[in-house]
Amino acid sequence: MKIGVIRFPGTNCDRDVAKAVELAGLTPEYVWWSEDKLTDYDGIVIPGGFSYGDYLRAGAMASITPVIDGIKELVKEEKPVLGICNGAQILGEIGLVPGVFITNETPKFNCEWVDLKVATSRTPFTKAFKKDQTIALPIAHAEGRFYTEDIDLLKDQDQIVLQFEGKNPNGSMEAITSVCDESGLVCAMMPHPERACEELFGSDDGLNFFKGFL
Amino acid sequence: MLFDIEIKISLKSGMLNPEATQVERSLDLLGYEVKNVKTVETIKFQMEGDDREAIRENVVDMCERLLCNPVIHDYKINVIPQNMACGK
User: Fold this and answer.
1) Which of A56, A143, A168 to mutate to probe the B interface, most B CBs <10 Å?
2) What is the DSSP string of A146-192?
3) What is the pLDDT of residue A36?
């Protein structure tokens, strides 16, 4: 199975993601932002970083590039798409997931391990976990505060994927740090699963997110 | 005709603005008592055209598609023919 790993100028988690995809038993292939035909891929990861220097808003510039048209086509074909950190911000900007990830409540770059509650296991990326299970993943962001205009809709449609547990480091609405589209196939998450794919790094909970493409 | 375009982008009323909160705290550190700090981003550029309304519609499009995020932002647009701009 071939997984496209999207690269924009300023993406910086692409190689970590490619390694994680390999560890999950899949074949990663880098995809430059100017590509708009992605139909050869079985799934897509939009990695973290600072695409286009986070100018205007995190993810704003990336949201109008040709590769986004390709991703939207793939979503129509019901292929899974995972956006991590800056990738999550991009998925929010293009409206493939509800809500946005904006400047943290306090002027702090949150870089730490956090406990997370798996709020739904219906997405491919969280299917290995049980609902309400606690997992550990690192976060690293200054713009990760989740905000949506209609929180009730998310609850009704089971679109909340991960919530901070024990504390809410960035002031996200209801401590939400990952959401999905209605189908569950498009998932945006601020934590970095690619940084938690081997026990050596403190946890391998992250690997399951990539195995979800299988 | 050349038009000066000015777009002012702000967070929607009632939304938390961490930058403004920090500005207020830092001004307080300097001994200034201020309240209700807001930060507003301004984007300026120029466009050639004949029809002021058509240009405005174009700029609204830019705001909706890239410059702003309608979920969190309000924006105000000024379209000024250059011969009416200040000092000209």
Assistant:
1) A56
2) EE-S-HHHHHHTT-EEEEESS--TT--GGGEEEEE-SSS-EEEESS-
3) 96
Task: Using alpha carbons, select from A144, A69, A72, A84 the residue that is nearest to residue A111.
Answer: A144
Which among A138, A151, A128, A155 has a CA at the least distance from the CA of A189?
A: A138
Distance from CA of B66 to the nearest CA of A (A): 6
Instruction: Fill in the amino acid letter for B60.
Output: V
Show residues of chain A in contact with B69, CB under 8 Å.
57, 60, 93, 100
- Across-strand partners of A141? A110
Active-site residues of A: which are they?
Answer: 85, 192, 194
Residue A105 has its nearest CB partner, among B18, B69, B72, at: B18
Is the pLDDT higher at A180 or at A108? A180
What pLDDT is attached to residue B88?
45
Tens-place pLDDT, residues A65-74: 999 999 999 9
Work out the minimum CA distance from B52 to partner chain A, whole angstroms. 26
pTM of the prediction? 0.93
| Helix and strand numbers, DSSP H then E, in chain A | 5, 11
How many Cα atoms are found within 13 Å in the side-chain-facing hemisphere of B57? 5
Q: ipTM of the predicted structure? A: 0.82
- How far is the C-alpha of A28 from the C-alpha of A5, rounded, in Å? 6
- DSSP secondary structure letter of residue A203: B
Collect all residues with Cβ–Cβ distance below 8 Å to B20 and sequence separation of at least 6.
Answer: B37, B38, B39
The number of angstroms, rounded, from the C-alpha of A134 to the middle of its chain's C-alpha atoms is: 18
A64 and B67: CB-CB below 8 Å?
no
pLDDT at B85: 57
